[in-house]
Amino acid sequence: MHTIQQQYWAVREYLSPVLKESKFKEHGRITPEEFVAAGDFLAYKFPVWTWEKGDASKARDYLPADKQYLLTRGVPCLRRASTLEYTEDAERMLSFADPKEGGAAGKEEEWVETHAGRAGGEAGANPGTIDDIPDVDDGEAEVTAGMGGLSVGGSKEPAEIPDMDEIPDMEEDLEDGEDEATAAPNSKLVAPSDGVLDASEVEVAKGNLLQVRTYDVMITYDKYYQTPRIWLIGYDENGTPLTPSQIFQDVSADHAFKTVTIEAFPHSTSLQAASVHPCKHASVMKKVIERMNQGVIEEQQAAKKGSSKDAKPKKWLFRRTSGNGKDDKAAAAAAGEEEVEGMRVDFYLVVFLKFIASIVPTIEVDSTTSF
Amino acid sequence: MTIVQFAPFQSLVQPAFWHALTELKIDVLRLSDDEQPVTATYTAGRAVKDRETGQEIALGCNLTVSGDAFSKTPQVPQNAVAATGVFKNFNTIEDFKNADKTALFNQVADEIWKSITVDKSTALLNRFLVITYADLKKYKYFYWFAFPAFAAKPAWEIDGEWLAAENALGAETLSSVQSQLHASPRPFFLVRTIENQTTIAPVEEYDIFYANVPPEHRVIGFVDPSALPTNPGWPLRNLLAYLLALHPETAQGVRILCWRDVEPPVAGSSGGWKSRFGMLKQSGAGAATATDRPSAVGWEKNIQGKLGARVADLAPMMDPTRLADQAV
């Protein structure tokens, strides 16, 4: 059944036309060219992201051969989303949709700040409107119907840990005695003062609270939905690949049962990966972009008036935006009468990652905040 | 003085590697259990800050094997360096269990030693061994890595403490090293600063590069996969063995730079340069310039911390029936 569904999706994607004209501000969708432009920007600003070729037989002809998808390896994930009381934060992060509430700047600030894995400082400051959480099951009946019954960690998944009986008993005496120069995990004399813990030790030290997993994160372009799509492959602290139910522990509760599924990774012949289904990406991105655009335009207008020096941009996005738009701004200041451009499509993936960070709150996909 | 303890490599096998192995096994190897060349990569060690406790957490000292490990032209990710190894797949679990692992291990160690003493090259210092048994029907892969490293006798000790490299060498030197290393990544390198000009060179050019440089200005660097403040990563062990064999005077003292900065630190972010610096020496080093191969260690421990094989169970991600269950 699942196979048929996947075939259907593959055919549907094959038949759907390539989006030609730019619509990212109107619909939140982007063209392949814009995906490449935004990807270039992401990879340039944040070198942890690189373009990948993927399997040659699976290459999409509407994307450059050497820029099929974006990849970053070893993204840390310190805690399980399921152990965090995270739903409220997630809601708050997506609460920018109500236009009559608050000034744009204030809202944006909150949105950027209330961010993955961070202890909510201003908890309760904003109750938030939850109408616009992207996974509500209006419309897209086929998808929700298809996934509604998904049960995580249920009885169908008994073998969460590999069956120890089947590991050949192979402890062998290959090395004579302990090697004094090998840093054994339990002999790591990590003084608390220097504050660095070894990942394999953390679990013991913290009573199971912290299990450092790492993820390989891929961003592909989904031709049918005309949005980027995120893919995850996870490893536990020993480097063992995670099972689907383990991956779902890192997805916020609102999404784990509905929008995240295990599917064939489109740029490999056989690889399966967890993916956030993109059916709602466009509408969410549209809202985010509208919001940000407003802020960016205000910023640019302010810059025009020459008041930008006093009104110091507080938040990362403003700073980035104005930083990148330096040329525009300089030109605008010089010419005085240039058109206000608003947010550029280059930022699409940066914004997209912030949105994804709300779905997988403990996976630090959003490395952009460190800047 | 304290004995230097090295953080061992930890194997990180991407699922794509098992897919590649499945294809290789079915289409190419079939029943052959001949050795195959394989490529892995590692990057400088990373630590992440836990936002809730503010503590730095060192991520594993990983050696990553990915889907193109068997390809002749593997793609090395940006900022990573490659290591080559020997791969051997067994047809049955019994063969896997009964294999003469000591012989396989010694064979790789001999190769490394030969490359040091005969070829005088650093190319094989990170050579590793991986043996596998693939249960293709059950999507289970048994594997065991070994990263042979020569045990120094007497052991290397650290003169003083491991320091932040920024304090010892200065930020300018580091940023110069960073830009040169970024342009041509290499796992091991020499650093010298003459008249504020910092240059790096391959370790093979030791004699020429350091011809007029006094020992106290010589710095030998390596890309350090460890992020622990007082434990340099595994690659340093064989680098030290190389230095000791070819440049015995280093036993009296060698200045080591553990390179951990993939990118220059961002202004405003916490931390700064993460590389470490230390002065190592062998105390009581006699005429230890034996030409015999030193004994080597380096089998990877399994999850239980014992010397033993690991298993990757990919059934949840590969078995069509299990996936179908998931997708109902």
UniProtKB/TrEMBL annotation, chain A:
<dbReference type="GO" id="GO:0005829">
    <property type="term" value="C:cytosol"/>
</dbReference>
<feature type="region of interest" description="Disordered">
    <location>
        <begin position="300"/>
        <end position="327"/>
    </location>
</feature>
<keyword id="KW-0653">Protein transport</keyword>
<keyword id="KW-0813">Transport</keyword>
<protein>
    <recommendedName>
        <fullName>Autophagy-related protein 3</fullName>
    </recommendedName>
</protein>
<dbReference type="GO" id="GO:0000045">
    <property type="term" value="P:autophagosome assembly"/>
</dbReference>
<dbReference type="GO" id="GO:0015031">
    <property type="term" value="P:protein transport"/>
</dbReference>
<dbReference type="Pfam" id="PF03987">
    <property type="entry name" value="Autophagy_act_C"/>
</dbReference>
<keyword id="KW-0833">Ubl conjugation pathway</keyword>
<dbReference type="GO" id="GO:0019776">
    <property type="term" value="F:Atg8-family ligase activity"/>
</dbReference>
<dbReference type="GO" id="GO:0000407">
    <property type="term" value="C:phagophore assembly site"/>
</dbReference>
<keyword id="KW-0963">Cytoplasm</keyword>
<keyword id="KW-0072">Autophagy</keyword>
<dbReference type="GO" id="GO:0000422">
    <property type="term" value="P:autophagy of mitochondrion"/>
</dbReference>
<comment type="similarity">
    <text>Belongs to the ATG3 family.</text>
</comment>
<dbReference type="GO" id="GO:0044804">
    <property type="term" value="P:nucleophagy"/>
</dbReference>
<dbReference type="InterPro" id="IPR007135">
    <property type="entry name" value="Atg3/Atg10"/>
</dbReference>
<dbReference type="GO" id="GO:0061723">
    <property type="term" value="P:glycophagy"/>
</dbReference>
